[in-house]
Write a structure and sequence with these properties.
Elements: E1 2-6, H1 18-23, E2 25-28, H2 34-45, E3 52-55, H3 59-67, E4 73-75, H4 81-86, E5 89-90
Parallel strand pairs: 2-3
Antiparallel strand pairs: 1-4, 1-5
InterPro entries: LysR_subst-bd
Protein name: LysR substrate-binding domain-containing protein
Organism: Oceanobacillus arenosus
């Protein structure tokens, strides 16, 4: 899993700083989602306390929100092939990523 941003909201050169990640609006899945659990674990391990959060119910709507510039998120790169190819979403280098998770 990778931190992803919209093409116009690049974090290049500053994404490894927890304070910079805290300033971002985070788009995440609903409570009980495995993806959300991974993101919350990432926050805890990196001492990140997001100031703004948007909760959406599917990976597709999260990707659309990111493309629209509403915020950033943590998603599996396999779900991003099209968007990465079209350069509508970026995967900046962020300390602590990628995060590995086995499917349940």
């Amino acid at each position: 899993m990778y931190i992803i941003t919209g093409a116009r909201q690049s974090l290049k050169g500053k994404a490894t700083i927890s304070e910079e990640l805290e300033k971002q609006t985070w788009i995440m899945r609903e409570q009980g989602s495995g993806t959300r659990e991974m993101l919350e674990d990432f926050f805890q391990k990196n001492h990140i306390h997001p100031k703004r959060v948007i909760i959406l119910g599917s990976t597709q709507t999260i990707k659309e929100g990111i493309e629209a510039g509403l915020g950033i998120s943590l998603l599996f790169d396999l779900s991003l092939k099209k968007e990465l190819h079209l350069h509508t979403i970026e995967k900046p280098e962020v300390k602590g990523t990628p995060i590995q998770r086995g499917f349940r």
